[in-house]
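Practice problem 4.
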């Protein structure tokens, strides 16, 4: 038994941000309540509120953990940018689908945890820039890539017409331009 588990009467187990995020990730984040989370942690409802202000605060912790899990540790460069993006997408696939309701939660409009979202966005934009996109195009590519991956994950298992993730990802990455191709052709 570790020092954070309840040993019987006396002081409640010590909480930590990591422990709260881990407990939140053990169930469906779409339906998670603060009471349910407190029960999973073996603490009182009020004790949990000393660590996080509300459900959004818990989801912020979850976002921090998930982004840390999916971001490749290396930096993308001209030789590895496409591989880097594929590893990011597959990590998102594996981690997001491992937590019931998480992909659907991320796909819905909601208040994103800014620091986590920016880490994810900045990594992907750097990869597109390493692949030859200018700043504007890299930002647009991130929007298409991020939304495309998350929407596919949110629909996974719900739509039998969805193509396999490998096919979807390959098509998505091949279709993203490396420079501004959004101009209308003359004609």
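Answer key:
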């Amino acid at each position: 038994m570790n020092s954070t588990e309840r040993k019987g009467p006396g002081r409640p187990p010590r909480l930590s941000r990591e422990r709260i995020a881990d407990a939140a990730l053990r169930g469906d984040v779409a339906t998670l309540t603060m009471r349910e989370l407190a029960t999973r942690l073996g603490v009182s409802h009020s004790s949990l509120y000393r660590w996080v202000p509300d459900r959004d605060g818990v989801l912020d912790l979850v976002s921090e953990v998930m982004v840390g899990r999916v971001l490749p540790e290396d930096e993308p460069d001209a030789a590895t940018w496409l591989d880097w993006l594929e590893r990011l997408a597959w990590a998102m696939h594996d981690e997001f689908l491992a937590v019931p309701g998480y992909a659907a939660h991320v796909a819905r409009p909601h208040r994103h945890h800014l620091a986590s979202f920016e880490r994810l966005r900045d990594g992907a934009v750097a990869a597109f820039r390493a692949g030859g996109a200018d700043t504007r195009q890299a930002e647009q590519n991130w929007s298409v890539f991020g939304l495309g991956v998350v929407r596919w994950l949110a629909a996974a298992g719900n739509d039998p017409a969805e193509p396999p993730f490998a096919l979807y990802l390959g098509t998505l990455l091949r279709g993203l331009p490396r420079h501004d191709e959004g101009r209308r052709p003359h004609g």
